[in-house]
Specification:
Radius of gyration: 20 Å
Order of helices and strands: EHEHEHEHEHEHEHEEEEHEHHEEEEHEHH
Number of strands: 17
Number of helices: 13
CATH superfamily of the largest domain: Dihydrodipicolinate Reductase, domain 2
Oligomer: single chain
Shape: globular
CATH architecture of the largest domain: 2-Layer Sandwich
């Protein structure tokens, strides 16, 4: 399958390595930064320099390819989707932006090609797993979705280090959020709804952020009493972000905020991804609660260090593409994340990373050592990798 991959950043380069390792994908990696392409130099992957702000250049680059994967900042989601439609190319995207997703959905109406935004972790895998859990109930009452991309060793007052795009991070902190409250679709504000909880003896906080629900509010409308998504951080982070965004007025100056964070807070690849989903409701007349929880840690990817967020996000979109290639998904129009069967995802060569026992750093707190905190998806044991996973094991070595 011929793929144009836009964006040679942390996530884009990880996607490229994963797809290339299978031998099933012809990957053309494109970026505006020639040095980024030279630095990567992944054997077997062709590269191209592209001005992604030029619609004609985008169209010409992708028109002869089977699909385009957009790993550019969220602002490029709509232009890439428009180019994909004009070129007659399938389009897969990582965007969490709610506005962009709605416009992509309108573009997909009547299209002969597929449009699948919100691939990755959240939105992405979180929607797949949540929908699967909800289907185990006769009547669903409450759904809580909690996801955090966290530094393994927090050392500053924010207790945070950038582990993924600052563009996406700031965007989800300032845009309105969707939720279902008392059966009604509501718009709630970011950085509100603060709560505290602990897992493995480690304290966390969670608060509203935009985009993580994907299309679940629409899919589960009229079928659930309460549904919300919150981002997980270490305690104290939310209060400081409120100070920066509200008290200092940086919500209206997002570029200045990103500049401050880039200059003051170092990036890290020593991170972890925390996933926690709780669904409660009636099953055979009894009130029941099911929990799906995971921790994914940084590990080696094809001999190079790979952060947990890189691995989780790249695996999500690669699994979606792989299942599409195998015709396990609709082949045209708008495709939601919850269209993916959870078992198909977890047994996919890329999706299996959500069941692999990645190992935390040697000096990680003992509370982090349990990678799979608990899993209850279909009543069976979680998937256990076998010797058949040689391709995936070679990538995540």
């Amino acid at each position: 399958m011929k793929i144009t991959l836009l964006g040679a950043g942390h996530i884009g380069s990880t996607i490229a390595r994963l797809l290339q390792a299978t031998g099933d994908y012809d990957v053309l990696l494109a970026d505006r930064n020639a040095q980024s392409l030279l630095d990567l130099a992944i054997p077997g992957i062709k590269t191209a320099i592209i001005d992604s702000s030029n619609p004609e250049a985008l169209h010409d680059l992708i028109k002869s390819r089977d699909a385009v994967i957009n790993a550019l900042p969220y602002q490029m989601a709509i232009p890439v989707a428009q180019a994909a439609k004009s070129a007659g190319t399938h389009c897969f995207d990582l965007t969490e932006d709610v506005h962009a997703t709605k416009l992509i959905r309108s573009l997909a109406q009547g299209a002969n090609t597929a449009f699948m935004p919100q691939c990755g972790l959240a939105p992405g895998f979180i929607s797949i797993a949540t929908y699967a859990l909800s289907q185990r109930f006769d009547q669903v009452f409450d759904i809580k979705m909690r996801v955090g991309a966290l530094p393994e060793f927090p050392t500053n007052a924010l207790k945070y280090n950038p582990t993924w795009s600052l563009d996406g991070l700031v965007n989800e902190y300032i845009r309105p959020c969707e939720a279902i409250l008392a059966g009604q679709l509501r718009e709630v504000q970011p950085l509100e709804g603060l709560e505290h909880f602990s897992i493995d003896g480690i304290e966390y906080e969670a608060f509203n952020t935009s985009g993580g629900l994907g299309t679940l509010c629409e899919t589960l409308a009229g079928k659930v009493r309460n549904l919300d998504y919150k981002t997980v951080r270490y305690p104290g982070h939310c209060a400081l972000m409120r100070f920066l965004l509200a008290d200092l007025g940086l919500a209206s100056q997002p570029e200045q905020l990103k500049s401050i964070l880039r200059a003051a807070i170092p990036e890290t690849e020593q991170d972890l991804v925390l996933i926690f989903i709780m669904v409660s409701g009636l099953r055979q007349g009894k009130l029941v609660q099911d929990v799906f929880s995971r921790k994914i840690f940084a590990s080696q990817l094809s001999g190079r260090p790979g952060s947990a967020i890189q691995i989780a996000t790249a695996s999500g979109i690669c699994a979606a593409l792989d299942l599409f290639r195998e015709e396990r998904l609709p082949q045209a129009g708008f495709i939601t994340q919850e269209s993916i069967d959870l078992n198909d995802f977890l047994h996919n060569r890329f999706g299996r990373v959500y069941n692999l026992n990645t190992t935390p750093s040697a000096h990680t707190d003992a509370g982090h050592k349990a990678n799979n905190i608990g899993c209850k998806t279909d009543g069976n044991n979680a998937y256990t990798p076998t010797s058949d996973d040689q391709t995936l094991a070679s990538a995540y070595e």
